[in-house]
Amino acid sequence: MMRKSMICPSVRSRRFFAGTKFALTVMLVFLMGGNAVANTLNFDSTPAGTPPEGWTLTKTGRGQPKWTVEADATAPSKPNVLKQSGRATFPVAIKNDTSVRDGFVEVKFKAIAGSEDRAAGIIWRAKDADNYYVVRANALEDNVVLYKTIKGVRTSLDIVGRKGGYGVSTPVASGQWHALRCDFTGNRFKVTYDGKPIFEVEDATISDAGMIGLWTKADSVTLFDDLAYGEVK
Predict the structure, then answer these.
(1) Could you tell me which CATH number the domain at 37-232 has?
(2) Which of 61, 78, 109, 170 is deepest in the core (most CB within 10 A)?
(3) Which own/partner contact pairs does 152-157 have at CB distance under 8 Å and 24+ positions apart?
(4) What is the pLDDT of residues 20-40, one digit of tens each?
(5) Domain residue ranges in the chain
(6) Which of 140, 141, 147, 86 is nearest to 121 (CA)?
(7) Tens-digit pLDDT profile for residues 106-163
(8) pTM for this entry
(9) φ and ψ at 9, to 5 degrees?
(10) Do residues 179 and 194 lie in contact, with contact meaning Cβ atoms separated by under 8 Å?
């Protein structure tokens, strides 16, 4: 006589999901070439009120950006955040010792203020403050847009599968923490906002490895935390 299994459904479910999680982890490692190197910066080792070391804190265009590490009680990883509170065409912060061609960059951000703009962006493959890719979220426009900046000139890029248009409309609430990420391999860029993939772009203008960084626009006052980046080798 065959005996019925004594394993309850909840145990079976836990085993199933554990096995699925393991399989997805193995698949992710395989797809990323089995050698993904990641780093996370949370600005907590820098004294509040000072600029972070190892960065070029500058701008694209004109103006006076102001990048400082500040204490913030709402920081995703307490106590500090990186704050941009100056005014420039495009305030830019570039991490000097980075060089990534294929990989990802991700950050948590909170848009605080700005009457002209209220933006937060991440940069990759930067040669300098005038040549890079950037994807940004804007709390005044409620959208996410990917651009290339070449010789200081910013141009929005078309989304794969759609001709024309301007980024993707999505709520970007002021005064709340959000997450923005881009995975880039070759000429393909995949943008994820608040954990949800929202669009992809193809462009081959900048093909070499470059630095990663952060970006805002005009009079945006923006907080950044938990900047993560990695290279797929």
Answers:
(1) 2.60.120.560
(2) 109
(3) 152/60, 152/61, 154/60, 154/90, 157/201, 157/203
(4) 333 333 333 333 444 556 899
(5) 37-232
(6) 147
(7) 999 999 999 999 999 999 999 999 999 999 999 999 999 999 999 999 999 999 998 8
(8) 0.84
(9) -60, -35
(10) yes
